[in-house]
Design a protein that fits this description.
Its cofactor is Zn(2+). It comes from Cohnella phaseoli. Keywords: Lyase, Metal-binding, Zinc. The structure is a single chain. By secondary structure, this protein is an alpha/beta fold. It has a single domain (6-278), classed as TIM Barrel. The chain is 50% helix and 18% strand. The chain has helices at residues 6-16, 28-41, 51-57, 59-72, 87-96, 110-125, 157-167, 191-200, 215-224, 233-249, 256-278; strands spanning 20-24, 45-49, 77-84, 100-103, 130-135, 139-142, 145-147, 171-174, 179-180, 205-207, 226-231. The protein has an 8-stranded parallel beta sheet with strand order 8-5-4-3-2-1-11-10, sandwiched between helices. A 3-stranded mixed beta sheet has the order 7-6-9, with no helix packed on it. Strand 4, helix 6 and strand 5 (130-135) form a beta-alpha-beta unit. It is globular. The two termini are 12 Å apart.
Amino acid sequence: MALVSSTPLLQAAKEGGYCIGAFNVHTLEMLQAVVEAAEETRSPLIIQSTVGTVKHLGPDYIAAAATVAANRSSVPIALHLDHCSDFGTIMQCIRAGYTSVMIDASHDPFEKNVEQTRKVVEAASAVGVNVEAELGRVGGVEDDIVVDERDALLADPDECAKFVELTGVHTLAPAIGTAHGIYKGDPNIDFDRIGRIAAKVSVPLVLHGGSGIPEDQVRRAVSLGMSKMNVATELRIVFSDAIKEVFAKNPEENDPRKYMVPAKQALKAAAIEKMRLCGSIGKA
């Protein structure tokens, strides 16, 4: 089947009380690994790329690879642009074939965030593309976006409701205490806030900073209303460690297939584990 919008996938997840894993990929092997994981577990899938990866590979290359994967797959697959603050890049990705985009104007004042988001929603909705936005500020590092922990702001439930109403955004990523990257200690997730936001908004909620959150906390966040979980750093580490292991055993190895295949297998196993944690297995 062709690439699909993530809107119906996430609405089904919200209604069904489960979560869909959204996996950041940076190479063809990483993309293939998460698709194979979704096929094996019968899980709906969201493939993600950061702005940095779009610049590195080109949106048309990424969309073409994701389209081939979707056409060969029997599970629904969406392609999402993560954390983008540039309208031009968002439009470029939509034209290339992305079926979901994130406008991140969370660094702007509320009114400006509304304005920026509404502009993207109007353009994307015309072609059936999902739009995600962020309210509050998730701490940590995502590509070249760095938010100091002291600058991270938790989303206000009433503002979330107002934001969704004013923008018509399809999915919302509220800051609830998670962080991008790997946690130095236990994450400080405000579960009460998740519940209060979910009670006030009708759209699916997105959990950013899904790498390294303890299992019980992921399950609790999902039970309270998180319908999409982003995973990036953890996948890069798994993939890279598998390659390092090959070179540790054979420093003279020069065939990319010999180190990419183990990396792909390791990433696939990690993705399957995240799908199990999200409760998306068998939901395709």
